[in-house]
Write a structure and sequence with these properties.
This protein is mainly β and 299 residues long. It is 10% helix and 50% strand. It has a 12-stranded antiparallel beta barrel with strand order 1-3-4-5-6-7-8-9-10-11-12-13. Strand 4 and strand 5 form a beta hairpin. The longest helix has 17 residues. The N terminus is likely disordered.
Length: 299
């Protein structure tokens, strides 16, 4: 009996050694997180950002898809009766992938001869790169950071440039303030680092003459036929220079978009607004207006 038990045990061991070891299953790939019910404002974020003041729009995350591009012109119509030249900056933006956007703008001018001939040429160049994404912990918040660079070109008329190169790193965010009112907030913090060129210095009223730290906050809302926003900006040289000067600006603006036809890739944005600025050169109150014509790919 003991011999039979030993034989059965040996056969069982032999069978186990003959069977191949089980190969563990390959781990399944990690699937990206897809929002089944994205926040209401994410679908409208790119158009919302487009209609903000240009100094904010270029910094804020618009979360456009890969391949999105926009070409625009900004004719300065008021130059036709107030200056000796006419300016019409031309620029564009392109989304390299879902996270990275590149931008550029050439600032040109043409003489009008109202008082004296100014010639024609290019007065400045703007370049920018921005990385943006939804905030991982809060997908309803868009965040971005990037770098803008401006340099004067050639020797333009003195009042077209301050004579400095500007390097501007920044971080920015967009976020919902009141879903019921469809009110969207935005903010940006950054630096403006100056580097003098061979051109003479020519700063305007309440423009800081040294490196500065800048903070901007605001809110905006889209209505069926216009967009309204209110932006508060503070710039200070206190942390980066020995000047210790500050500039405070409040800008309410309304933007009216016009399209030739619905869903057209061509849109004209007419902006009207007011401003109140308090700085080292005193108080400034006034009105402003601008026109921007865009050509964009349809999504």
């Amino acid at each position: 009996m003991n011999r039979w038990r030993l034989l059965v045990a040996l056969l069982a061991v032999a069978r186990c050694e003959a069977e191949p070891a089980a190969i563990p299953a390959a781990p399944t790939s990690v699937q990206p997180i897809v929002l089944q019910n994205p926040p209401w404002w994410l679908d409208e974020l790119d158009s919302f950002v487009d209609r903000l003041p240009s100094f904010m729009a270029r910094n804020l995350p618009g979360l456009q898809p890969h391949g999105f591009y926009r070409i625009y012109v900004r004719p300065r119509v008021a130059d036709l009766w107030s200056r000796n030249f006419f300016r019409m900056p031309v620029g564009g933006e392109y989304k390299v992938n879902d996270r990275v956007e590149l931008s550029g703008e050439v600032q040109d001018y043409f003489t009008t001869g109202l008082k004296r001939a100014e010639g024609y040429g290019f007065s400045g160049l703007n370049l920018g790169a921005k990385y943006e994404q939804p905030w991982p912990a809060r997908p309803d918040i868009g965040v971005g950071w990037g770098l803008n660079f401006h340099t004067p070109l050639s020797r333009p008329p003195p009042d077209l440039t301050d004579g400095y190169r500007h390097t501007q790193p920044y971080a920015a965010a967009t976020f919902p303030l009141s879903p019921g009112w469809k009110l969207i907030g935005y903010s940006s913090v950054g630096f403006d680092l100056l580097n003098h060129t061979a051109l003479p210095s020519n700063f305007g009223k309440n423009e800081l003459h040294a490196n500065s730290f800048q903070v901007s906050v605001g809110a905006g809302r889209d209505w069926p036929h216009f967009h309204a926003s209110l932006t508060l900006s503070v710039a200070s040289t206190l942390l980066l220079s020995d000047e210790g000067r500050q500039v405070l600006a409040l800008r309410p603006e309304i933007v009216f978009p016009f399209r030739i036809r619905q869903n057209s890739g061509v849109v004209a944005l007419f902006t009207v607004g007011t401003y109140a600025i308090e700085g080292p050169d005193g108080t400034q109150l006034g009105v402003s207006s601008s026109l921007r014509i865009e050509f964009r790919n349809r999504r």
